[in-house]
Amino acid sequence: MTEVLDSRGIDAWRAAERGTVALVPTMGALHDGHRRLIARAHEMADAVAVSIFVNPLQFGPGEDFERYPRDLEADRAICRADGVDAIFAPELHEMYPREPEVTVSAGRMGAVFEGAARPGHFDGVLTVVAKLFQRVQPDVAVFGQKDVQQLALVERLVADLDLGVRIESVPIVRDDDGLALSSRNRYLSTTEREIALLLPRALDAARAEPTAQQAQDAARRTLTDAEHRHPEFSLDYATLVERATFTECPPDFRGEAVLVLAARVGATRLIDNATLAFV
Ligand code: PAF
User: Counting beta carbons within 10 angstroms of the beta carbon of residue 232, is it exposed (0 to 12), middle (13 to 18) or buried (19 or more)?
Assistant: First the structure.
């Protein structure tokens, strides 16, 4: 039986849990990408908790906090089917009984790429992740590689603040057409979804290139062509970065790097990425 627990409930559940615990932090609207995280969590620990909380701190003014999809019953059915032991679904006032005065700063790494487009976003993410870790006290937490900057920052959070939680990650899950799964894909119209496929196509174009410079150029070419052809498409960035620091790779870079992409399709902001190796 998968119980939906508030803060007191999760405290009691955690205190009674004798084995190792894995946490899958989510904002709900669970899809197959989350289910992979849950499956990995089961491999990593004796018990699995999923947190469901749409965190206002990580949404900027004018972003989709109000209309972010919320369906606790559907999420609960998925968690139940996937053998989740506890769902931590706190109310807003439990997480933030008052406006927090002290929050986590994501630093330079949190101010570039997604952080530049969404000022304060990663401060909000790291603040809520720290609070969730404090509450659930997991041994391991599982995140998706689709939000690769978030993942890198959570790793730094744990390292820099000595949080003692192992961070595990799971590769991007894609639909049959190649689009990376995201709770926000449901905002896309049929036409917008077709256009959104240019993101995985740009990653494919980059994969075919032998050098860092050529790979980045190929992705940018695909996406700037798209901007000319589709007025509803606008590219934010397509850049090769070093995974641990999110600094841009030099043109002659050798080794493993992440090509990060972000674009707006209609009103929806989409991100994608691929890890590429250059010898
Ligand atoms: O990736 C998400 O769903 C959110 O950013 C997270 C990690 C649950 C924090 O609210």
Answer: middle
Give kind and range of the element (H or E) at residue 168: strand 166-170
With beta carbons less than 8 A apart as the criterion, state whether 136 and 41 touch. no
Strand partners, 130: none
Q: Summarize pLDDT for 40-83 with one digit per residue, the tens.
A: 999 999 999 999 999 999 999 999 999 999 999 999 999 999 99
User: How far is Cα 208 from Cα 184, in angstroms, rounded to an integer?
Assistant: 29
> Is the Cβ atom of 216 under 6 angstroms away from ligand 1?
no
Q: Whose CA is nearest to atom 3 of ligand 1?
A: 26
- Please give the structure tokens belonging to residue 138: 């997991």
Query: Which stretches of 61-186 are DSSP H helices?
Result: 72-81, 92-95, 114-117, 121-136, 148-160
Does the CB atom of residue 154 touch ligand 1 within 6 A?
A: no
Question: Which residue's CA is the nearest one to ligand 1's atom 9?
Answer: 125
3-state secondary structure at position 264? strand
Whether the predicted model's global pTM rises above the 0.90 cut: yes
Can you tell me the distance from the alpha carbon of 63 to that of 25, in angstroms, rounded to the nearest whole number? Answer: 20
User: How many angstroms separate the CA atoms of 82 and 77, rounded?
Assistant: 9
136 band by pLDDT with thresholds 50, 70 and 90: very high
Kindly list the structural domains of the chain, giving each domain's residue range(s) and its CATH number in brackets, ordered by start: 3-170 (3.40.50.620), 183-274 (3.30.1300.10)
For residue 4, the SS3 value is strand
Per-residue pLDDT tens for 235-275?
A: 999 999 999 999 999 999 999 999 999 999 999 999 999 99
> Which of 128, 153, 172 is the best mutation target for the ligand 1 pocket, counting ligand atoms within 8 Å of the beta carbon and taking the most?
128
Two structure tokens written together for 161: 């603040």
Average pLDDT over residues 215-227: 97
Does residue 1 register a pLDDT over 80? no
